[in-house]
Amino acid sequence: MKNILLILVGGTICTALNNDGNLSVSQKAGALIKENFINGDSPFAKKVNIEVSKNLFVLSENMTVDTWNKIIDTYREYNENKNYDGIIFAHGTDTLGFSAALFAQLLCNTTIPVFFVSANKPLHSEKSNGNANFKAAVECICKGISPNVYVVYKNISDSKTYLHLASRITQCADYSEDFFSSGMIDISDENCFEAIARLYPPHKRKGNLNIKALPALKECILMIEPYVGLNYDVFDYSRFSAVLHGTYHSGTACAIDQNNKNSLLYMIKRCGDTTHIYLTPGENKKGTYETVAVIGDKVSFLFGTTRETAYAKLLIAYSVFDNPFDIKEFIETEHNFERIY
């Protein structure tokens, strides 16, 4: 018998119809998820014991850093003196990529498999993939998948269920119900688990974070995405320890004049020496665009990870560490195969 903890974060997978006929996050979700699995066609339906946590009642678009701290506290509470064979977070799709990236770092030294599952529609809908996603996660645990943090999700466009490393998954694209990641694997592939163990061996994961003793995460990172006409005067940079600034697809951002409010150089001047600035994706190297060369010695480049993971690592680094050397070492060290380039 496998013991699995189901942590109900919220989102569509945890919704039910209320008395007004509208969808709301419901305490009934845990029982419904369990019931649908037990009464389904999985060969492991009678071979698992699923313990359900209290419901955090969070629609994922309402996710905040404070809510992340509550999820971490719930994880700690239910894991105190307990031995689970696996853990499944039921989470909404809107911020799935960010939460998965965060826990891929926080639990990079996990000794059991941890899964995030979502649903495109409520579980009572025939079009929902939530039941299939939960079933796939349970079966992965029962079949002995390597310890790590994963997302399992059935894409709507091709009806295939994919296994993703949580450290590599990105947010769902606009007007889409599919998730993608570098190295994602069709879970129906008979060599799926062997490929995971070979490509991402647990002994090569790094990290000394102890989630049981982790201080509360802080709202200390400002994340900015570039667009034509971005005015850098609208932000109060003094409130943040660091800025994560996105780039256009070629790794560039506007850098025309340090006195122009639309220029990244203007923001750099505003931040001074008190707020660190990171750019992702992009590289500071010879042969790149002159706009990148102009800012190269004024910012730090985070190359090779997703924006979601870059944000998660910065948030952890500036929440946990005070020493600039420790912050730099944490950010530059690959902890859970998040380097995709």
Overall description:
With 341 residues, this protein is an alpha/beta fold. The protein has two domains: 2-204, L-asparaginase, N-terminal domain (Rossmann fold, 3-Layer(aba) Sandwich), CATH 3.40.50; 219-303, Rossmann fold (3-Layer(aba) Sandwich). It contains nine helices and 13 strands. The protein has a seven-stranded mixed β-sheet with strand order 4-1-5-6-7-8-9, with helices on both faces. Helix 3 crosses helix 8 (307-320) and helix 8 packs antiparallel against helix 9. The radius of gyration is 21 Å and the shape is globular. The mean pLDDT is 93.
Summarize the structure.
By secondary structure, the chain is an alpha/beta fold.
What fold name stands as the CATH topology of the largest domain?
Answer: Rossmann fold
Query: Under the CATH scheme, which architecture of the largest domain would be assigned?
Result: 3-Layer(aba) Sandwich
Instruction: Please provide the count of β strands.
Output: 13
- In percent, how much strand structure appears in the residues? 15-25%
Major β-sheet profile = 7 strands, mixed
Uncertain regions: pLDDT < 50 for 5+ in a row?
A: none
Question: What CATH first level of the largest domain would be assigned?
Answer: Alpha Beta
Spatial separation of the terminal alpha carbons: 40 Å
What is the fourth-level CATH superfamily of the largest domain? L-asparaginase, N-terminal domain
Number of structural units classed as domains: 2
Task: Calculate the mean pLDDT score and round it.
Answer: 93
Kindly name the structural category: alpha/beta
